[in-house]
Predict the 3D structure of the following.
Amino acid sequence: RKEVEQDPGPFNVPEGATVAFNCTYSNSASQSFFWYRQDCRKEPKLLMSVYSSGNEDGRFTAQLNRASQYISLLIRDSKLSDSATYLCVVIDPGGKLIFGQGTELSVKP
Amino acid sequence: EPEVTQTPSHQVTQMGQEVILRCVPISNHLYFYWYRQILGQKVEFLVSFYNNEISEKSEIFDDQFSVERPDGSNFTLKIRSTKLEDSAMYFCASSVRGEGGYTFGSGTRLTVV
């Protein structure tokens, strides 16, 4: 089983759509969880941390289910500028980031 | 906003040559990392560095790789004898506490020919 596994992409959605990404992780001792965004050939940039209670930042909502080792990201009212690859990232007990393969999102007019 | 700076942005080198990738982490950060991303693949951990020594390294980080913090500000990755499969984007990252709040540099694209 992969350490961090994400939905295969790409997701092609119209502007204004709601889109959800899923992610699972294999190490139950993982400590912290994040969603990063990566634009083509650029560095990963932190989008948001993910907390057990769920957290929201504007149009973005992240959820964590530790029992199922499952993380999600919901984007509401998609904008053209949301087009990017979304990376599910987990911090392992040693403190290093473990990245998922990423899910590509393309928002069309 | 503080930045992690990487140089060069792109380097082309011949197979077998040595390359040094340079990074200037954020000044009050204590933990430093190198990651790499082969085109079309996921970001992979190479090495972490704290208190002037390697704290963890991956299987990728073999004897051809080394890291150094020569002067208290720069953090370098050296590849002694490059191979074609070393072609990738190399990202430097730093953090204050080593448990989150990582900041990535914009990367060095290494092309080995």
About this structure: The first strand of chain A starts at residue 4 and ends at 6. Chain A touches chain B through 22 residues (CB under 8 Å).
